Amino acid sequence: MGVVDTVLRFFVGTRNERVIRSLHADTEKIIERFPETNKLNDEELKAKTAEFKQRLREGETLDGLLVEAFACVREASWRMLGGRRIVKDPITEEDIPYKAHFPVQLMGGMILHKGMIAEMVTGEGKTFVATLAMYLNALEGRGVHVVTVNDYLARRDAEEQGRVLGLLGMSVGWIQSDMDNEERRAMYGRDVTYGTNNEFGFDYLRDNMKIDPRQQCQRDLHYAIIDEVDSILIDEARTPLIISGSPEGTADLYAKADEIAKTLKGVDAEELKDKLADKHGKNMLLQDRSIYLNALADYDFEKKEKESQALLTETGVKKVEKALGIKNLYDGAHMQWPHLMEQALRANHLFHLDKEYVIHEGDNGPEIVIVDEFTGRMQHGRRWSDGLHQAVEAKHGLKPRAESFTLATITLQNYFKLYNKLGGMTGTAMTEAAEFAKIYKLDVAAMPTNRPLVREDRNDLIYGTGDEKWEAIADEIEKIHEQGRPILVGTTSVENSEHLGRLLEVRGLKHSVLNAKYHEREADIVAQAGRKGNITVATNMAGRGTDILLGGNPKHSALQELKKEGISVDSLLPDEFKDAPGWNVPRDVRLKAEVEFDELLTERAKKYAPECDAEHEEIIKLGGLCVIGTERHESRRIDNQLRGRCGRQGDPGSSQFFLSLEDELMRLFAGPRIKGLMQSLGLKDGQPIQAKMVSNSVERAQKKVEQRNFDIRKNLIEYDDVNNGQRKSVYRMRQVFLAGMSRGDYFELEGNVRKHVRATITEIDKVEKLTDKTRFSARVAKELSHWADKEHDIEISEDALRDITTEEAVFRLAQTVRSRVHGEKLRQSVVDRIENVIQASLEKHLLKNIDRTELWDLGSVAVDYHKAFNEELDVDGLPKGEGGPEHFNAVKNELIDRATKLYEERERRICSDQDGELMKTPGGKPNYGRMRQLERYLLLQSIDEHWKQHLRNLDVIKGSIHWESYAQKDPKDAYKKKGHEVFEVMLDEVDMEVISTLFRIEVKFEKPPEPQRAMDAGATANKPAIGSTSTSGMPAPTQAQAETRRQMDQASRAAPSANTGYRAKEKRKLPGPNDPCHCGSGKKYKKCHMAEDKAKATG
């Protein structure tokens, strides 16, 4: 620390002290508002929320509303959780509202709102604090996510704090791992949503795999509050979230493709070029591409060994179509076949037995094993991707094995960095403040305690051996237990917990042993760990999120009593649901029963409260909770969490760690030094050493481990930053293909539309108090219809805007505008890809010889042009010149003009009726909806498939990148460079695939239905809009589309596997009621096989 920092600290305090001081003024203002908010009845208090939202629309900021909003939350908490009780503060002797936020809790809420991390000692009410910031930020209407460490806490906190926010007119939801897509979407639609980091992260990945925007669950990632932020952002940050899957039902297709491939006649491209060059001359061959194409017509495919490609010729396409009994290989229903045939040809003609691979007799029979091209050794466990391995298996008559591959992945670090604002709270964050600042740009503020902390933290006791340490711990527990103090023992593993449990059993000491497997049971036991004489042995995670109350929890005693009487949530369900399986009970019915049970539990708990209160006072006199640590964890945070279990809210308590030189941390980092010290002091066996110097030595060892772990996490995020930038680019592009704009852009659009609608209603109808439920006159509907046509060039009739509320009008107008924007962006995306394909071809064949036109390979340009646009290119008709950038650009512009005209002709043909007339909207404008839907499908299909393959390619690169260090290169830099290169290649492949398919695919169209006058809740308007992607007037989905959607729906519903924890493996599971049925009929599951499946499940 420099001299300047030392002087500043002396005169103005530490940075943390300055931050806390800056919050005092607003804290006092909030408390002073209590008499004012107390005068409001419940309806008036709820109306404050609508008032705050209106003031935000009119330009006020959240900071400007903070004092009033926090005062309202404080009032609501006092009414809903404190029962409007006034109690006496035991320290100040002043009357205070029970369960109303303390000053330090109000400060904590401000810290969260500022996008910082609040470090709050255990028992200070972190869950309570979050309600303040979540309410204030939810006023913006963009949703707030609250992240917890498990499903149980997500639901518990949502239900409790939901009562507070419900009084203020806010809705609160929670995500559970067993929820289907429809339930998740409803929960995310609420003002505040609780859930675990895994659920939020996997839902983000699933949403970016959906092929229907109406199936996306999450809204814009606006603001998140993370409970136990150190656990989620640091302890769990090293493991990425992965959704994986495997293709099904393709084994027979690979075999058929191989059968056909073996009948085709091919030619090596280079050999054919050499042969034609000898006959016609090299220059003639370069200038006249038709020579090569005419010769190629005698073959079914051309082989390019350097590029490892085998491509069908037009002759070969016809033979394959005949063999398959189909008319068009590139028809939407057969789009998998070109890829299958290419892989079959590569397997048969470019990959050779005993060279690239061998057939090895494995445990499950013969298998294809790749041979390393450098060492010649077999690479067991490795498989070629993209279906090549299956094609080689089919080549030799082996059954193709389905391969698991990554569909989507993200690290927790990069997921949470997607939020516009992030806040967090924990009891232990200051030790990791540097990492929070560096990785997440989050500052940490340590909050003062509401009451002075009187816990006694004793120096560590260090023994020579583990056996000596465990005997000393058992002796200490027995001694403290005789005093009547409750004891909490923290261990670093389940094995150690069980070992200590056996020692206590030998001594006849009754105790409870916990681990982190069963959160609900764990919370119950920890809640009673504060009873007189109780001994609780817990692993590191045990009891997080639950306070240890000295004297016990009266609710727990009441719960045991209700259980004995057979009273439970299930017993309070209506008779028709009492014997029904859990999935068959409507959520609202169960919630009603849960509320009734909670009210009954609260009432029963009142008779146990006096007993618990008396015991609380007795334990305080004995010295409070005793915490014993059996080993120092590699992280100081975990140790501090254990210490923090005692001394809550000014209660007394003590903490003591028992260590041995055989502990892993001591053995690796501090053992020799301390062992030498013990020997120099002449300590006997079983005699410990206890000194501040020793404890400091242990902490230095912990800092070394923490630095090592930080380097590991930093390394992970540096590698993932390559994926992250590409992921954001692809997902942003995909969202444009899917819906025309991001969810954040749509929110902004909706806000602008809302302003205009409200201004129009106010001006014409002279409404004084306008709300979202206000209905308006026919004159307003006419004006809004005219405005939509004039300002946004969209058709929405007056009828569609009559007899609806203000908010419904905003929704319909915004959706219709989005539909038009979507159409425009889809068309522009295709036009951009046309230009990209041409640019890539010219750069490949002309750019390196830009100044020497005699070396321009216009013949290859013509091949690429034909491949892309299904049109022969007469190179003689291209602009003449002497080379150089100007000539190059002239050729490029000419090709783009020609391709654009071809595109416009195809667009017109696809969007024409059976008589060849261009279809029109009811308003008489051209309707290109058919083309837009086709483009949307092709763009999504291509980007999804190539992105999955790209993730596999990155995995391969990452697996071998460490070899770069032998060439004196930084592996991370090499990975970034190679990752960028393969990403650019992927984008080029997407461009070519989309364009070449669009110019070849044949689509059959059904006669469009008559436009309906009424509009349902999900429609954008009662008449098709320009560029609309609704199904009215669109091509009927092909069989391939239906199959693709079925497979992608299966992948998108993949949930985290219980065995792997963080890898969501695609598996067969029942669809949601409104999802497509698994039988492939296209019907909703609830109207098809749902009843039959459930009968089987219960029968």
Features:
25 strands; seven-stranded parallel beta sheet; alpha/beta; 5 domains; 1099 residues; Rossmann fold; 9% strand; Pre-protein croslinking domain of SecA; 39 helices
CATH topology call of the largest domain: Helical scaffold and wing domains of SecA
Annotation, overall tally of beta strands: 25
Taking strands numbered 1, 2, ... along the chain, how are they ordered across the largest sheet?
Answer: 5-6-4-7-16-3-17
Q: Percent helix among the residues?
A: 40-55%
Which runs of at least 5 residues are low in confidence (pLDDT < 50)? 1008-1069
Oligomer: single chain
Gross morphology: globular
CATH class division of the largest domain: Mainly Alpha
Q: Could you state the CATH homologous superfamily of the largest domain?
A: Helical scaffold and wing domains of SecA
Number of helices: 39
Compute the average pLDDT: 81
- Characterize the largest beta sheet: strand count, sense, and whether it forms a barrel: 7 strands, parallel
Which percent range describes the beta-strand content?
5-15%
Structural class: alpha/beta
Rounded to an integer in angstroms, the radius of gyration calculated over CA atoms is 35 Å
CATH hierarchy: architecture of the largest domain? Orthogonal Bundle
**Ends distance:** 72 Å
Word description of this protein:
It is a single chain. This protein is an alpha/beta fold and 1099 residues long. It has 5 domains: 3-245 and 413-446, Rossmann fold, CATH 3.40.50; 251-265 and 300-403, SecA, preprotein cross-linking domain (Pre-protein croslinking domain of SecA, Alpha-Beta Complex), CATH 3.90.1440.10; 456-713, Rossmann fold; 743-1036, Helical scaffold and wing domains of SecA; 1069-1099, no CATH class. The protein is built from 39 helices and 25 strands. A 7-stranded parallel sheet has the order 5-6-4-7-16-3-17, with helices on both faces. Strands 18, 19, 20, 21, 22, 23 and 24 form a 7-stranded parallel sheet that branches. Strand 12 (357-362) and strand 13 (365-371) form a beta hairpin. Helix 8 (126-138) crosses helix 9, helix 13 (251-261) packs across helix 19 (388-395) and helix 18 packs across helix 19. The radius of gyration is 35 Å and the shape is globular. It starts with a helix and ends with a helix. Residues 1008-1069 have low confidence and may be disordered.
